[in-house]
Amino acid sequence: MGVWLDGTGTGIPARILPRPASYFLQVAALFPWAAVATIDYRAQAFVCGKDEWEELDTRPYFPIDSDDKENRFNRVMHFLRDNRKTMNALDAYLVERHNSGRSDDGIPRDRPIGGIRVLSLRIPIPSPGERLQRVGRLPLSSYPEDERKFFYHTLRSTLAERCGERLQGPS
Amino acid sequence: MPSVSWRIRDWLGEPLPVLRLEIVRIGAPLAILGFASSRLEHADEWIGDAGFRVPDLGGDWRQPLYIPPLDSWAAWTVAAVMVLSAVACILGIRTRPSAIVLACTLAFVALSDRLAAYTVTKLSPAVMLAVAAGGAGARLGVDAYLKRKKSGKRPKIARPSGALRFVQLLVVVIYSASGIAKARGDWLKVPLVLWSHVHDSYQTGISFALASVLPGWVWTALQGMVLAFEVLAPVWFGLARTRTAAFVFGVGMHTMIGLMFGPVRWFAMLMITLLVAGYMPEQLLEPLEALARRLEPQSP
Which of A67, A103, A113, B225 has a CA between 20 and 30 Å from the CA of residue B282? Predict the structure, then answer.
Protein backbone atom coordinates (compact mmCIF):
# COMPACT_ATOMS: atom_id res chain seq x y z
CA MET A 1 0.00 0.00 0.00
CA GLY A 2 2.83 2.38 0.91
CA VAL A 3 4.64 1.65 -2.35
CA TRP A 4 1.47 2.36 -4.28
CA LEU A 5 0.65 5.55 -2.39
CA ASP A 6 4.17 6.85 -2.88
CA GLY A 7 4.46 5.84 -6.52
CA THR A 8 1.17 7.41 -7.49
CA GLY A 9 2.31 10.74 -6.09
CA THR A 10 -0.08 11.11 -3.14
CA GLY A 11 2.78 12.07 -0.84
CA ILE A 12 0.99 10.34 2.05
CA PRO A 13 3.82 7.97 3.12
CA ALA A 14 6.28 10.87 3.25
CA ARG A 15 3.87 12.80 5.47
CA ILE A 16 3.08 10.08 7.98
CA LEU A 17 6.15 7.87 8.11
CA PRO A 18 9.65 8.56 9.39
CA ARG A 19 11.91 9.48 6.47
CA PRO A 20 13.98 6.26 6.52
CA ALA A 21 10.77 4.21 6.29
CA SER A 22 9.20 6.21 3.47
CA TYR A 23 12.53 6.13 1.62
CA PHE A 24 12.22 2.36 1.21
CA LEU A 25 8.80 2.81 -0.36
CA GLN A 26 10.16 5.05 -3.14
CA VAL A 27 10.61 2.28 -5.68
CA ALA A 28 7.82 2.58 -8.22
CA ALA A 29 7.87 6.01 -9.88
CA LEU A 30 10.35 5.01 -12.57
CA PHE A 31 11.06 7.25 -15.57
CA PRO A 32 7.79 9.25 -15.45
CA TRP A 33 9.23 12.19 -17.40
CA ALA A 34 10.69 12.49 -20.87
CA ALA A 35 14.36 13.40 -20.94
CA VAL A 36 14.77 16.90 -22.35
CA ALA A 37 18.49 16.42 -22.99
CA THR A 38 21.20 13.87 -22.41
CA ILE A 39 22.80 15.08 -19.21
CA ASP A 40 26.33 14.42 -18.10
CA TYR A 41 28.15 16.09 -15.23
CA ARG A 42 31.73 17.28 -15.36
CA ALA A 43 34.27 19.18 -13.28
CA GLN A 44 37.02 21.64 -13.99
CA ALA A 45 39.86 22.56 -11.67
CA PHE A 46 41.67 25.84 -11.17
CA VAL A 47 45.32 25.07 -11.81
CA CYS A 48 47.55 27.08 -9.49
CA GLY A 49 50.34 28.95 -11.21
CA LYS A 50 48.63 28.71 -14.57
CA ASP A 51 45.51 30.43 -13.28
CA GLU A 52 43.40 28.49 -15.75
CA TRP A 53 40.44 26.14 -15.55
CA GLU A 54 41.14 22.69 -16.94
CA GLU A 55 38.94 19.61 -17.10
CA LEU A 56 39.38 17.38 -14.06
CA ASP A 57 38.46 13.76 -14.64
CA THR A 58 36.51 12.82 -11.51
CA ARG A 59 36.33 9.11 -12.31
CA PRO A 60 39.47 8.08 -10.39
CA TYR A 61 37.94 9.62 -7.26
CA PHE A 62 34.51 8.05 -7.82
CA PRO A 63 35.42 4.59 -9.06
CA ILE A 64 32.03 2.90 -8.62
CA ASP A 65 30.35 2.57 -12.03
CA SER A 66 32.78 5.18 -13.27
CA ASP A 67 31.55 5.22 -16.87
CA ASP A 68 27.83 5.61 -16.46
CA LYS A 69 25.35 7.86 -14.78
CA GLU A 70 25.12 5.62 -11.71
CA ASN A 71 28.54 6.98 -10.81
CA ARG A 72 28.47 8.67 -7.39
CA PHE A 73 29.81 11.96 -8.74
CA ASN A 74 26.86 12.11 -11.14
CA ARG A 75 24.53 11.26 -8.31
CA VAL A 76 25.92 14.00 -6.07
CA MET A 77 25.28 16.44 -8.88
CA HIS A 78 21.88 15.01 -9.69
CA PHE A 79 20.56 15.21 -6.14
CA LEU A 80 22.58 17.89 -4.40
CA ARG A 81 24.04 20.35 -6.88
CA ASP A 82 22.09 23.16 -5.23
CA ASN A 83 23.18 22.21 -1.72
CA ARG A 84 26.06 24.49 -0.77
CA LYS A 85 27.29 22.34 2.11
CA THR A 86 27.60 19.29 -0.13
CA MET A 87 29.23 21.24 -2.93
CA ASN A 88 31.79 22.68 -0.49
CA ALA A 89 32.53 19.15 0.74
CA LEU A 90 32.89 17.95 -2.86
CA ASP A 91 35.20 20.88 -3.60
CA ALA A 92 37.43 20.07 -0.62
CA TYR A 93 37.42 16.36 -1.49
CA LEU A 94 38.46 16.80 -5.12
CA VAL A 95 41.15 19.37 -4.30
CA GLU A 96 42.60 17.13 -1.60
CA ARG A 97 42.52 14.06 -3.86
CA HIS A 98 44.21 15.76 -6.78
CA ASN A 99 46.82 17.48 -4.65
CA SER A 100 47.70 14.19 -2.96
CA GLY A 101 48.93 13.14 -6.41
CA ARG A 102 47.75 9.55 -6.23
CA SER A 103 45.71 9.33 -9.45
CA ASP A 104 45.76 10.44 -13.05
CA ASP A 105 42.89 12.84 -13.54
CA GLY A 106 43.93 14.74 -16.65
CA ILE A 107 45.86 17.42 -14.80
CA PRO A 108 49.55 16.75 -14.09
CA ARG A 109 50.08 15.42 -10.58
CA ASP A 110 52.75 18.01 -9.84
CA ARG A 111 50.35 20.87 -10.63
CA PRO A 112 48.33 21.74 -7.53
CA ILE A 113 44.76 22.92 -7.92
CA GLY A 114 43.01 25.56 -5.84
CA GLY A 115 39.37 24.74 -6.46
CA ILE A 116 36.76 23.40 -8.80
CA ARG A 117 33.79 24.37 -10.82
CA VAL A 118 31.17 21.84 -11.78
CA LEU A 119 28.74 21.83 -14.62
CA SER A 120 26.23 19.79 -16.51
CA LEU A 121 26.40 19.06 -20.20
CA ARG A 122 22.98 19.23 -21.76
CA ILE A 123 23.32 17.46 -25.07
CA PRO A 124 20.27 17.68 -27.36
CA ILE A 125 18.38 14.46 -27.97
CA PRO A 126 18.23 13.54 -31.65
CA SER A 127 14.96 13.00 -33.46
CA PRO A 128 14.02 9.53 -34.74
CA GLY A 129 15.52 8.97 -38.17
CA GLU A 130 18.51 11.24 -37.56
CA ARG A 131 21.96 9.74 -37.87
CA LEU A 132 22.99 8.64 -34.37
CA GLN A 133 26.33 8.34 -32.62
CA ARG A 134 27.05 5.86 -29.84
CA VAL A 135 27.02 7.57 -26.48
CA GLY A 136 30.54 7.99 -25.18
CA ARG A 137 32.62 10.30 -23.09
CA LEU A 138 34.30 13.09 -25.05
CA PRO A 139 36.54 15.82 -23.63
CA LEU A 140 34.67 18.83 -22.30
CA SER A 141 36.21 20.98 -25.00
CA SER A 142 34.26 18.96 -27.61
CA TYR A 143 30.97 20.42 -26.44
CA PRO A 144 29.77 23.88 -27.42
CA GLU A 145 29.47 26.55 -24.74
CA ASP A 146 25.70 26.62 -24.95
CA GLU A 147 25.50 22.96 -23.86
CA ARG A 148 27.33 23.69 -20.60
CA LYS A 149 25.57 24.83 -17.45
CA PHE A 150 27.69 25.73 -14.42
CA PHE A 151 26.33 25.07 -10.93
CA TYR A 152 29.11 25.76 -8.52
CA HIS A 153 32.57 27.23 -8.36
CA THR A 154 35.08 27.74 -5.58
CA LEU A 155 35.12 31.28 -4.28
CA ARG A 156 37.97 33.38 -5.66
CA SER A 157 39.18 34.14 -2.15
CA THR A 158 39.47 30.41 -1.48
CA LEU A 159 41.31 29.86 -4.77
CA ALA A 160 43.78 32.59 -3.85
CA GLU A 161 44.19 31.20 -0.37
CA ARG A 162 44.78 27.62 -1.52
CA CYS A 163 47.06 28.50 -4.41
CA GLY A 164 48.80 31.27 -2.46
CA GLU A 165 49.61 28.98 0.42
CA ARG A 166 51.08 26.50 -1.96
CA LEU A 167 53.08 29.13 -3.84
CA GLN A 168 54.41 30.66 -0.67
CA GLY A 169 54.82 27.46 1.29
CA PRO A 170 58.05 25.54 1.75
CA SER A 171 59.09 23.64 -1.34
CA MET B 1 -21.95 -15.39 -1.90
CA PRO B 2 -18.77 -15.49 0.20
CA SER B 3 -17.77 -12.25 1.92
CA VAL B 4 -14.64 -10.37 0.97
CA SER B 5 -12.86 -11.48 4.14
CA TRP B 6 -13.60 -15.13 3.36
CA ARG B 7 -12.33 -14.70 -0.17
CA ILE B 8 -9.11 -13.19 1.17
CA ARG B 9 -8.81 -16.02 3.68
CA ASP B 10 -9.32 -18.60 0.93
CA TRP B 11 -6.79 -16.85 -1.25
CA LEU B 12 -4.20 -16.81 1.52
CA GLY B 13 -4.95 -20.38 2.53
CA GLU B 14 -4.66 -21.86 -0.95
CA PRO B 15 -1.68 -24.24 -1.22
CA LEU B 16 0.98 -22.95 -3.61
CA PRO B 17 4.05 -24.73 -4.97
CA VAL B 18 6.87 -24.41 -2.46
CA LEU B 19 9.30 -24.05 -5.35
CA ARG B 20 7.92 -20.63 -6.17
CA LEU B 21 9.40 -19.11 -3.02
CA GLU B 22 12.63 -21.02 -3.63
CA ILE B 23 12.86 -19.21 -6.97
CA VAL B 24 12.83 -15.91 -5.07
CA ARG B 25 15.32 -17.32 -2.57
CA ILE B 26 17.77 -18.12 -5.37
CA GLY B 27 17.04 -15.48 -8.01
CA ALA B 28 16.72 -12.37 -5.84
CA PRO B 29 20.13 -12.67 -4.12
CA LEU B 30 21.72 -13.34 -7.53
CA ALA B 31 20.23 -10.11 -8.90
CA ILE B 32 21.22 -8.28 -5.72
CA LEU B 33 24.80 -9.53 -5.92
CA GLY B 34 24.96 -8.59 -9.59
CA PHE B 35 23.72 -5.10 -8.81
CA ALA B 36 26.01 -4.70 -5.83
CA SER B 37 29.10 -6.19 -7.48
CA SER B 38 30.45 -2.88 -8.80
CA ARG B 39 29.83 -1.32 -5.39
CA LEU B 40 31.23 -4.22 -3.39
CA GLU B 41 34.44 -3.93 -5.38
CA HIS B 42 34.90 -0.48 -3.79
CA ALA B 43 33.23 -1.09 -0.45
CA ASP B 44 35.48 1.40 1.32
CA GLU B 45 34.37 4.13 -1.09
CA TRP B 46 30.75 2.99 -1.01
CA ILE B 47 30.05 2.95 2.71
CA GLY B 48 33.48 3.63 4.20
CA ASP B 49 35.67 6.62 4.75
CA ALA B 50 37.85 6.17 1.66
CA GLY B 51 35.57 8.02 -0.75
CA PHE B 52 33.43 11.12 -0.91
CA ARG B 53 30.71 11.34 1.71
CA VAL B 54 27.74 13.64 1.67
CA PRO B 55 27.96 15.60 4.93
CA ASP B 56 25.20 15.54 7.53
CA LEU B 57 22.52 17.72 5.94
CA GLY B 58 20.55 18.01 9.15
CA GLY B 59 17.16 16.77 8.00
CA ASP B 60 17.30 17.62 4.30
CA TRP B 61 14.66 15.54 2.49
CA ARG B 62 17.30 14.16 0.14
CA GLN B 63 19.08 12.45 3.01
CA PRO B 64 16.69 10.03 4.72
CA LEU B 65 19.17 9.32 7.50
CA TYR B 66 22.73 10.44 8.06
CA ILE B 67 25.05 7.54 8.81
CA PRO B 68 28.70 8.45 9.33
CA PRO B 69 31.19 6.61 7.11
CA LEU B 70 32.56 3.35 8.42
CA ASP B 71 36.23 2.71 8.92
CA SER B 72 37.55 0.85 5.90
CA TRP B 73 37.87 -2.43 7.78
CA ALA B 74 34.24 -2.18 8.89
CA ALA B 75 33.09 -1.34 5.35
CA TRP B 76 34.85 -4.42 4.00
CA THR B 77 33.34 -6.49 6.81
CA VAL B 78 29.80 -5.36 5.93
CA ALA B 79 30.54 -6.17 2.27
CA ALA B 80 31.80 -9.64 3.20
CA VAL B 81 28.75 -10.30 5.38
CA MET B 82 26.48 -9.23 2.52
CA VAL B 83 28.17 -11.56 0.04
CA LEU B 84 28.31 -14.51 2.44
CA SER B 85 24.69 -14.15 3.51
CA ALA B 86 23.58 -13.88 -0.14
CA VAL B 87 25.55 -16.98 -1.12
CA ALA B 88 24.23 -18.89 1.89
CA CYS B 89 20.70 -17.92 0.94
CA ILE B 90 21.20 -19.00 -2.68
CA LEU B 91 22.56 -22.36 -1.53
CA GLY B 92 19.86 -22.75 1.09
CA ILE B 93 22.25 -22.87 4.03
CA ARG B 94 20.68 -21.58 7.24
CA THR B 95 18.26 -19.90 4.91
CA ARG B 96 16.15 -17.89 7.30
CA PRO B 97 19.00 -16.25 9.24
CA SER B 98 20.91 -15.75 5.99
CA ALA B 99 17.96 -13.93 4.42
CA ILE B 100 17.49 -11.77 7.51
CA VAL B 101 21.18 -10.83 7.63
CA LEU B 102 21.14 -10.04 3.91
CA ALA B 103 18.06 -7.86 4.36
CA CYS B 104 19.78 -5.98 7.20
CA THR B 105 22.96 -5.35 5.21
CA LEU B 106 20.90 -4.15 2.24
CA ALA B 107 18.90 -1.77 4.39
CA PHE B 108 22.11 -0.47 5.93
CA VAL B 109 23.88 0.24 2.63
CA ALA B 110 20.75 1.84 1.14
CA LEU B 111 20.62 4.27 4.05
CA SER B 112 24.36 4.71 4.40
CA ASP B 113 24.89 5.80 0.82
CA ARG B 114 21.92 7.44 -0.87
CA LEU B 115 24.12 8.10 -3.89
CA ALA B 116 24.53 4.46 -4.89
CA ALA B 117 21.05 3.36 -3.82
CA TYR B 118 18.53 2.40 -6.46
CA THR B 119 15.30 0.44 -6.63
CA VAL B 120 17.16 -2.85 -6.20
CA THR B 121 18.68 -1.81 -2.87
CA LYS B 122 15.47 -0.25 -1.62
CA LEU B 123 13.17 -3.08 -2.68
CA SER B 124 15.39 -6.00 -1.75
CA PRO B 125 15.21 -5.81 2.06
CA ALA B 126 11.45 -6.42 1.91
CA VAL B 127 11.90 -9.25 -0.61
CA MET B 128 14.52 -10.94 1.55
CA LEU B 129 12.38 -10.54 4.67
CA ALA B 130 9.56 -12.24 2.77
CA VAL B 131 11.96 -15.08 1.92
CA ALA B 132 12.82 -15.41 5.61
CA ALA B 133 9.24 -15.14 6.83
CA GLY B 134 7.98 -17.60 4.24
CA GLY B 135 10.21 -20.40 5.40
CA ALA B 136 12.20 -20.63 2.18
CA GLY B 137 14.88 -23.29 2.06
CA ALA B 138 12.42 -26.17 2.32
CA ARG B 139 13.47 -27.43 -1.11
CA LEU B 140 16.36 -27.10 -3.56
CA GLY B 141 19.00 -26.30 -0.96
CA VAL B 142 21.47 -27.67 1.54
CA ASP B 143 19.10 -27.27 4.52
CA ALA B 144 16.41 -29.19 2.66
CA TYR B 145 18.83 -31.95 1.66
CA LEU B 146 20.12 -32.44 5.20
CA LYS B 147 16.64 -32.38 6.69
CA ARG B 148 15.40 -34.99 4.25
CA LYS B 149 18.43 -37.16 4.85
CA LYS B 150 17.93 -37.00 8.58
CA SER B 151 14.17 -37.47 8.74
CA GLY B 152 13.59 -39.50 5.60
CA LYS B 153 10.35 -37.58 5.04
CA ARG B 154 9.47 -36.15 1.69
CA PRO B 155 9.16 -32.36 1.74
CA LYS B 156 5.81 -30.74 1.07
CA ILE B 157 5.34 -29.81 -2.56
CA ALA B 158 2.67 -27.19 -1.88
CA ARG B 159 1.51 -25.22 1.12
CA PRO B 160 -0.16 -21.87 1.85
CA SER B 161 2.34 -19.04 1.64
CA GLY B 162 1.63 -15.49 2.74
CA ALA B 163 5.16 -14.60 1.61
CA LEU B 164 4.45 -15.66 -1.94
CA ARG B 165 1.15 -13.80 -1.90
CA PHE B 166 3.16 -10.75 -0.79
CA VAL B 167 5.49 -11.20 -3.78
CA GLN B 168 2.53 -11.50 -6.15
CA LEU B 169 0.93 -8.36 -4.76
CA LEU B 170 4.22 -6.48 -4.72
CA VAL B 171 4.73 -7.01 -8.45
CA VAL B 172 1.25 -5.76 -9.30
CA VAL B 173 1.49 -2.81 -6.90
CA ILE B 174 4.81 -1.73 -8.39
CA TYR B 175 3.48 -1.91 -11.94
CA SER B 176 0.25 -0.15 -11.09
CA ALA B 177 1.99 2.69 -9.21
CA SER B 178 4.65 2.97 -11.88
CA GLY B 179 2.01 3.17 -14.60
CA ILE B 180 0.02 5.83 -12.75
CA ALA B 181 3.24 7.81 -12.14
CA LYS B 182 3.99 7.62 -15.87
CA ALA B 183 0.45 8.67 -16.79
CA ARG B 184 0.70 11.62 -14.39
CA GLY B 185 4.08 12.44 -15.90
CA ASP B 186 4.79 12.73 -19.60
CA TRP B 187 3.73 9.36 -20.97
CA LEU B 188 0.31 10.51 -22.13
CA LYS B 189 1.54 13.90 -23.36
CA VAL B 190 4.89 13.29 -25.02
CA PRO B 191 4.95 10.62 -27.75
CA LEU B 192 8.70 9.96 -27.54
CA VAL B 193 9.34 9.47 -23.81
CA LEU B 194 10.80 6.02 -24.35
CA TRP B 195 12.93 7.25 -27.24
CA SER B 196 14.25 10.12 -25.09
CA HIS B 197 15.75 7.64 -22.60
CA VAL B 198 17.97 5.67 -24.95
CA HIS B 199 20.59 8.36 -25.54
CA ASP B 200 22.50 8.49 -22.28
CA SER B 201 25.13 6.35 -20.59
CA TYR B 202 22.63 3.54 -20.04
CA GLN B 203 22.75 2.98 -23.81
CA THR B 204 23.84 -0.48 -24.93
CA GLY B 205 24.75 -1.79 -28.37
CA ILE B 206 21.22 -3.17 -28.65
CA SER B 207 19.46 0.07 -27.74
CA PHE B 208 21.74 1.95 -30.13
CA ALA B 209 20.98 -0.50 -32.94
CA LEU B 210 17.22 -0.31 -32.27
CA ALA B 211 17.30 3.49 -32.05
CA SER B 212 19.11 3.53 -35.38
CA VAL B 213 16.57 1.44 -37.24
CA LEU B 214 13.15 1.74 -35.60
CA PRO B 215 10.93 4.59 -36.78
CA GLY B 216 9.47 7.03 -34.27
CA TRP B 217 5.98 5.53 -34.31
CA VAL B 218 7.33 2.18 -33.06
CA TRP B 219 8.74 3.90 -29.97
CA THR B 220 5.39 5.57 -29.38
CA ALA B 221 3.59 2.22 -29.81
CA LEU B 222 5.97 0.52 -27.35
CA GLN B 223 5.42 3.38 -24.92
CA GLY B 224 1.66 2.92 -25.15
CA MET B 225 1.94 -0.83 -24.61
CA VAL B 226 4.13 -0.41 -21.52
CA LEU B 227 1.78 2.21 -20.10
CA ALA B 228 -1.32 0.07 -20.69
CA PHE B 229 0.40 -2.96 -19.20
CA GLU B 230 1.46 -1.12 -16.07
CA VAL B 231 -1.61 0.97 -15.36
CA LEU B 232 -3.92 -2.01 -15.82
CA ALA B 233 -1.62 -4.57 -14.18
CA PRO B 234 -4.17 -5.36 -11.43
CA VAL B 235 -6.60 -6.40 -14.16
CA TRP B 236 -4.11 -8.33 -16.30
CA PHE B 237 -2.73 -10.26 -13.34
CA GLY B 238 -6.04 -10.48 -11.48
CA LEU B 239 -7.96 -12.26 -14.22
CA ALA B 240 -7.00 -15.88 -14.82
CA ARG B 241 -7.73 -15.42 -18.51
CA THR B 242 -5.08 -12.70 -19.02
CA ARG B 243 -2.56 -13.74 -16.36
CA THR B 244 -0.28 -15.83 -18.56
CA ALA B 245 -0.21 -13.19 -21.29
CA ALA B 246 0.64 -10.56 -18.64
CA PHE B 247 3.42 -12.79 -17.33
CA VAL B 248 4.88 -13.21 -20.83
CA PHE B 249 4.60 -9.49 -21.55
CA GLY B 250 6.23 -8.60 -18.20
CA VAL B 251 9.14 -10.97 -18.71
CA GLY B 252 9.57 -9.69 -22.27
CA MET B 253 9.46 -6.08 -21.14
CA HIS B 254 12.07 -6.60 -18.44
CA THR B 255 14.25 -8.61 -20.79
CA MET B 256 14.25 -5.69 -23.21
CA ILE B 257 14.89 -3.22 -20.37
CA GLY B 258 17.87 -5.32 -19.27
CA LEU B 259 19.21 -5.49 -22.82
CA MET B 260 18.65 -1.83 -23.63
CA PHE B 261 19.57 -0.03 -20.41
CA GLY B 262 22.89 -1.55 -19.33
CA PRO B 263 23.06 -0.99 -15.55
CA VAL B 264 19.31 -1.54 -15.16
CA ARG B 265 19.77 -5.22 -16.03
CA TRP B 266 19.93 -6.21 -12.35
CA PHE B 267 16.63 -4.53 -11.61
CA ALA B 268 15.22 -6.34 -14.65
CA MET B 269 16.55 -9.63 -13.32
CA LEU B 270 15.00 -8.99 -9.91
CA MET B 271 11.62 -8.21 -11.45
CA ILE B 272 11.79 -11.25 -13.73
CA THR B 273 12.55 -13.36 -10.66
CA LEU B 274 9.49 -11.99 -8.88
CA LEU B 275 7.34 -12.48 -11.98
CA VAL B 276 8.50 -16.05 -12.49
CA ALA B 277 8.00 -16.89 -8.82
CA GLY B 278 4.62 -15.25 -8.66
CA TYR B 279 3.02 -15.87 -12.01
CA MET B 280 4.79 -18.48 -14.14
CA PRO B 281 2.19 -21.07 -15.22
CA GLU B 282 2.41 -24.16 -13.07
CA GLN B 283 3.16 -26.54 -15.93
CA LEU B 284 6.37 -24.60 -16.57
CA LEU B 285 7.46 -25.35 -13.00
CA GLU B 286 7.56 -29.07 -13.75
CA PRO B 287 11.20 -29.19 -14.93
CA LEU B 288 12.22 -27.44 -11.72
CA GLU B 289 10.10 -29.85 -9.74
CA ALA B 290 11.85 -32.76 -11.46
CA LEU B 291 15.24 -31.22 -10.68
CA ALA B 292 14.27 -30.75 -7.03
CA ARG B 293 13.25 -34.41 -6.81
CA ARG B 294 16.51 -35.54 -8.36
CA LEU B 295 18.53 -33.51 -5.89
CA GLU B 296 16.73 -34.94 -2.88
CA PRO B 297 18.39 -37.89 -1.16
CA GLN B 298 16.66 -41.20 -1.74
CA SER B 299 14.68 -42.63 1.14
CA PRO B 300 16.60 -45.22 3.14
Answer: B225
Q: Does B39 map to a domain?
A: yes
Q: Please indicate, yes or no, if residue B265 is contained in any of the structural domains.
A: yes
**Proportion of chain B above pLDDT 70, given as a percent:** 99
Q: Residue B20: what residue type?
A: R
Residues of A whose CB is below 8 A from B219:
128
B49 pLDDT more than 80: yes
Domain that holds residue B241: 17-295
Answer whether B182 touches A (CB < 8 Å). Answer: yes
Contact criterion met (CB < 8 Å) for A132 and B211: yes
Mean pLDDT of B83-110: 96
Within-domain flag for B139: yes
B90 falls within a domain? yes
Strands (DSSP E) contained in chain B are: 16-17, 158-159
> Could you read off the pLDDT of A80-135 as tens digits, one per residue?
999 999 999 999 999 999 999 888 999 999 999 999 999 999 999 999 988 888 98
Q: What's this model's pTM, rounded to 2 decimal places?
A: 0.92
Which residues, other chains included, contact B174 with Cβ-Cβ below 8 Å and sequence gap of 6+?
A3, A7, A27, A28, B123, B271
What is the Cα gyration radius of chain A? Answer: 20
B203 in contact with chain A, both atoms CB, cutoff 8 A: yes
